[in-house]
Amino acid sequence: MTILTFTLILLGGAFLAGLLGSLTGLGGGVVIIPLLTLGFHTDIRYAIGTALVAAIATSSGSASAYVKEGITNIRLGMFLEIATTTGAVAGALLAVFLPTSLVAVIFGVVLIISAVLSIRPKGNHLETEDKSQWAQQLRLNGHYPTPEGTVDYKVRHVPGGYIMMTVAGVLSGLLGIGSGALKVLAMDNMMRVPFKVSTTTSNFMIGVTAAASAVVYLQRGYIDPGLCFPVVLGVLAGALGGTKILAKANTKWLRIVFSVVITLLALQMMYNGISGKL
Amino acid sequence: MKRLFSKTYWADKDVEILLGTLLRYGVVLSSIVVLAGGAIYLIRHGHELPEYRAFAGPNNRWDNLPAILHGVWLGHGREIIQLGVVMLIGTPIARIIFSVFAFSVEKDYLYIVITLVVLGVITFSMLGGLGG
After folding, report:
1. Is B53 within 8 Å of chain A by CB?
2. Which family does it belong to (chain A) (predicted)?
3. Is residue B1 part of a domain?
4. Residue B85 in contact with residue A235, Cβ under 8 Å?
């Protein structure tokens, strides 16, 4: 296979990854790593670097649409970015010391958790009681527009959310993924932020978190231009297409099918990691 | 409703829209650079064989900015792609720098500090010699 064929096939694969990633809310990056390692037998370090760049591209590309709607809680995002960026730097450092086989196994576990989280029913709760001292002092409480008018919400369990965000940051830096599912879990389940606000704020944070570890990856040679070229362009085009379809389609079944596929890929990654094939 | 007419609400809203636009321009611009570099790379190396099975470690042609810029000056495809990638990584960082100014305009000192801490972590990651 020449570089030309390789690039074209990868471009198509990345397009599909971006499309499915945006339709299911899992992000394009999580599919890129199995695609590169299992499909193209690429070293997992190249795969991680490429996926991280793809995560930055999709996060920045779609953030503009969300912030315009005024749903993103910028203060909450900025405060929690302290946690995710410190975590991401730690994760990128950890990546040097951990054997790639272990990284593959951790990736598989995180992938399965993300898949389960993406099909879990989404309760849209609204916390109106102002109970958290932290949230008051950091002015994290916010409001967002709904068809019925502006709704105020309060944020809770700030230290717990902060710790979970640090973990999400470590995994992002270690595995080259946006770890959007974990960020949403921290805000939605732990901090009781409304689901819509959680997802958009999480997306807003992914780019900054990923950039913190990407600068380390770049110096380490994880980010290869020959792979980034088709993957970044493919994932971006796919994500754009996905948001267009998302407005019309019912994605419930797609989400379930995709989660099953992701789980199978995750198991394959873990098997290859344990048997030393990666 | 009272909040809706307060100054901070609208200031925030303007900032958010500006930030969103900044991010989008960053992505569009970097994609164009990546595409241009990619075209040159394919024309020159499209017939060769890809080699990604074994990790080769850092490549001194594109693991630092001066080398990337030198390659861009010489018209090398992969360095141009990497410049686009660096711009893409720089987009969210630019957003953070911009937020420092935005919070300064609002005289929100707490969030100026918080934003500077985030910027500090990224700067440490960039210049702290973590590349190994």
Report:
1. yes
2. Belongs to the 4-toluene sulfonate uptake permease (TSUP) (TC 2.A.102) family.
3. no
4. no
User: Closest by alpha carbon to A217, among B30, B125, B90?
Assistant: B125
Residues in chain A, overall count: 278
- The Cα A265–Cα A142 span in angstroms is 39
State the nearest Cα–Cα gap between A256 and chain B, in angstroms.
31
In a domain, B25, yes or no: yes
Give domain status of residue B6, yes or no.
Answer: no
Q: Is residue B9 part of a domain?
A: no
Q: Give tens-digit pLDDT for A168-205.
A: 999 999 999 888 888 888 898 889 998 888 888 888 89
Domain locations along chain A: 3-274
Please give, rounded to a whole number of angstroms, the shortest distance from the CA of A278 to a CA of chain B: 9
In total, how many domains does chain B have? Answer: 1
Question: What are B106's two structure tokens?
Answer: 């609002």
Distance between CA atoms of residues A45 and B55, nearest Å: 7
Domain that holds residue B89: 17-48+57-127
Q: Give me the mean pLDDT over the A148-159 stretch.
A: 88
- Whole-number Å distance between alpha carbons of A100 and A147: 49
The whole-number pLDDT of residue B2 equals: 47
A21 and A58 Cβ atoms separated by less than 8 Å: yes
CB contact under 8 A, B20 and A63: yes
